[in-house]
Amino acid sequence: MSPPSASGPILQHVQHWVFDLDDTLYPPEAAVMALVQGRINDFMIRACGLEPEAARTLQKRYLTDHGTTLAGLMLNHRVDPRAFLDEVHEVSLDKLMPDPVLREGLLRLPGRRLVFTNGSARHAERVLEKMALADLFEDVFHIEAADLIPKPDPRAFHGLIRRHGVEPRAAAFFEDTARNLEPAAQLGMTTILVGPRALTDAPPYVDHRTERLPPFLNALTFGEPR
Q1: Which residues are bridge partners to 157 per DSSP?
Q2: Confidence class of residue 5 from pLDDT cuts 50, 70 and 90?
Q3: pLDDT tens digits, one per residue of 117-131
Q4: What residue stretch is flagged as signal peptide (predicted)?
Q5: Can you list the positions of beta strands (E) in the chain?
Q6: C-beta separation of 213 from 21 below 8 A
Q7: Does the domain at residues 32-89 carry the CATH identifier 3.40.630.30?
Q8: CA-to-CA distance for 110 and 103, rounded, in angstroms?
Q9: Distance from first CA to last CA of the chain, Å, rounded?
Q10: Which helix (H) or strand (E) holds 193?
């Protein structure tokens, strides 16, 4: 595992560029996920009939045990997934802004660009449109496309591979949550941990790490043209 050097990592083998959405394509200070978390907390309180602190504790356990809060709610409380996804993702995106440096970095990537998110289709659409990036991605593999099976479940990765014809050993996967990179690494993908935790988390299945995505993408080198 290594941070990018001045000239950037050489990723000439990559033809499939796969990106997580939230806190990866945009920085955490945009605070979108804080708003989503607030809505999840409110949903948990109602669905589980718990006080706020107990609901938050249970939500964290579901997230750890099942990959998403929704998976735990569906298993234990028979929650309607559509109602959950619609409610928790309907948040303000006022702090999200187009980033010309990010766009430039994405445009220079040779090959296909995909988004792989545990969020809903509608959420991904709203975020990409707000960031003026929707035209750069071939498709979004969202939680509905994954049959509500979230990362880091290997079945979600196999679903991505089948639907989009991704060749794992020719793919790079960018994520802000380290544990979601482990199944990608097991499949042979190049893994990149993004965000503040990239400076402190050092699991062996992370190939590269960067606090900020735009400078990393713009520093990449691709070797000789294929």
Answers
A1: none
A2: very low
A3: 999 999 999 999 999
A4: none
A5: 16-19, 112-116, 139-141, 171-175, 190-194, 208-210
A6: no
A7: no
A8: 14
A9: 25
A10: strand 190-194
